[in-house]
Amino acid sequence: MARIAVVGSINMDLVVETDIMPKKGETVLGNHFFTAPGGKGANQAVAAARLGGNVTMFGSVGIDQNGENLRAILKEEGVETAFINIVEGIATGVAIIEICEHDNRIIVASGANQYTNLEYLTNVSKELLNYDVILLQHEIPLESIEYIANFLSIYNKTIILNPAPAFALSDEILKCITYITPNEHEYKMVLNTSDPMDEVLKRYPNKLLITRGEEGVTYCDGTNIITVPSINVEIVDTTGAGDTFTGAFGVAISEGQDLLKAIHFANCAAGLSITKMGAQKGMPRLDEVLKIR
To answer: Does domain 3-292 have CATH number 3.40.1190.20?
Structure first.
């Protein structure tokens, strides 16, 4: 099996469930609070590892209890952690998550994730050449994404970018990316366009995969616009569904599956993930996904 490198964020999630989303200046009572491992990078690494991927995490944590716990959890999940950057004098990243009526709002304090920077990546760049599939997200500095995309595309690596949180990307970066996976709300900002979805998809055949929640995933195969449907499940918590999709998609691509099959595999994994609470906690294992494929 091909080797997968995840270059991205590592956070501790602070989660509150509530019946009412507070308005500006308003205080409401929550129902339940818990902490959980998170960060889009770490989430994707765990998703891929649970599905049988050979995964190494590249990212940064602080010298604190959150950082220690998060590295231990990644190891327990079978993710290689030897190259994680441990930063002095700054806290491990956190995400504050509000969950209400099966939906969520998230605020991220990046902390040590800002140190997944050019200095760190230059030091590990030779190691990254040992990997075939690289997963990236937007919770590390943009210059880091640009550096990795440019550097690894020269070596014909498969680069998968989950562009969240959304911000506009240059044409130069897009040329280096093999697959990009925004959701239906993000793609217009990421691609700096107001054009209809079908027109945008035709510009990026077999590259742009738009995740659309219950509607599935839509892409252009070069001729036709294709939507791969989601599975029907009872929604409990959507946190981490996009990360599960990207991690699962990375595994399928690393196994040599064609694009349609890889999207279907990732849809099944993402669908199962929203039937449980928590980002990483809800991520399925390979035997669960194979039962419903």
So the answer is: yes
